[in-house]
Amino acid sequence: SQGEPIKERRLEFEGRSHALEELGKALQLAKKGLNQIEASIGKDDKYSHLTEEEIKTVEKTVQEKWMWLEEKRMLLASLPRTQQPPVTVAQIRAEKLSLDSVVLPILNKPKPKVEPPKEEKPKDKPADEQKNNQNQNAQGNHSQPNQQQAEEEKMDVE
Question: Record's family (predicted)?
Fold first, then answer.
C-alpha cells in the first residue's frame, strides 16, 4: 500500500536516535578501555596480558566504527523526514554488534592464571614415619590391637 513507506520511515525515525545512542555508548566504553590500557602500559595491570596486536585491533575497530557513526549522523542530520534514510536502525544495530563482537572479547579477556610453582615434598622418610606414628598414637588403643592382630596373623601363617 502507499502508506507502508511512510510507516517505515516513521518507525526508522523513532528508533534511530536510540540505536545511534547505543552505538555511541558502546564506542565510548571501548575508548575508555583503550585509555585504561594505555595508562597501564609498563605496569602489572589487568590488561598487561593483551598482545599489541589485540590492542591495535581494538583501536582500529573503534576508529572505523566512530568514523562510520559520525558520517551517518551527518547524513541523517540534513535528511528531511520525508526521504528514505541512508541508514536503517537494523544497520546501526549490526554495526554495534560487529563492534561488540571484536572489542568485548579482547577487553574482557581474562588474565591467565599463574600457578605458583609446586613445592617439592621432602623425601625424609624418618619424618614421614614419625608423622605416621603420631597419627597412630593419636588414634589411641585402636591401632595397637590392629598391630597385634597383624602380628598374630603372621605367626599363624608360619
Answer: Belongs to the heat shock protein 70 family.
Closest CA to 98 of 71, 60, 61: 61
Radius of gyration of the chain (CA): 35
CA–CA separation, 10 and 84 (whole Å): 10
Q: How far apart are CA 91 and CA 117, in angstroms?
A: 51
CA atoms within 13 A on the CB side of 132: 6
What pLDDT sits at residue 149? 57
Write down the H helix ranges in 1-158: 4-39, 52-77, 89-107, 125-139, 143-157
Q: What nine digits make up the cell of 75?
A: 547524513
Query: For the domain with range 3-108, which CATH number is right: 1.10.3710, 1.20.1270, 3.40.50, 2.40.128?
Result: 1.20.1270
pLDDT of residue 143: 47
Cell numbers for 80, please give them.
528531511
Number of residues in the chain: 158
DSSP track, 96-111? HHHHHHHHHHHHTPPP
Mean pLDDT of 24-53: 86
Q: How confident is the model at residue 61 (pLDDT cuts 50, 70, 90)?
A: very high
